[in-house]
Amino acid sequence: MEKPDIKSSAPVVEMTAVTVGLREDPDQPALDDVNWCVNPGEYWVIGGLHASGKSDLLSMTAGLTRPLRGSFRLFGREMPVEGDQFLAGLLRIGMVFDGGQLFHHLTIQENIALPLRYHREMAGGDFAKTVKTILEMTGLSSQAAQYPGRLGRAWQKRAGLARALVLRPEVLLLDNPLGGLDWRHVQWWLDVLDQLSAGRGFFDGRPMTLVVAAEDLRPWKSRAAHFAILQKRRFCALGHHPELGRLTDPLVRELLAETPAAK
Predict the structure, then answer these.
(1) What percent of the chain has pLDDT over 90?
(2) What residue ranges define each of the domains in the chain, with the CATH number in brackets?
(3) CA 20 to 30 Å from 10, out of 40, 69, 140, 180?
């Protein structure tokens, strides 16, 4: 199978003068005048302090909320769209929520299988094989029969990733994936996301478009290619990772821990 020519493809995300609403109160603005373009195969990290609008931006990008103003195109279609076209677009995006956001009355395996049951018609053998593959890929095989409440935060986060990957999305959005993890689990996430970004070992070699929201840019400096920060309700693109060290913005320095945060 030939790899897609991602360079010649249209942008997957295009925002022009967009106002992003709050997740909890979609009529209230979280970010203003967002201008952002994400091309297929790109690896973005968006930094910002707590409550800066990172989760709100990811939710709108995933189609879970609507833009209050401006133009938002997802896979070339002006959002929002309705009906089958809307659902088809959403199924091309995987969303990994902070903490996993699992259903606690379902086992880990059942949580991961849930999107397949709703959105894919598969023979029993193919269904089981797909879930087994994702469990193995995320290191969750031994926890498959456990309920989320019996597992620590690190494994719940992995299960959230597994659930997002089971439909083989083209774009993966991740909200604070490294938050609260020890270095062993942090390294696992960074390595897996590197492989997904490069198309190594998963999904027939197709590079995946990644957008990560983070409160600390340090782990991502040599991983992602594109960076932005959110501050004062604005989206500010920073450029590529080699340029980060030359930036003097105080928030960038804080997120890179180059200087101590003011008390």
Answers:
(1) 67
(2) 6-92+171-255 (3.40.50.300), 107-168 (no CATH)
(3) 69
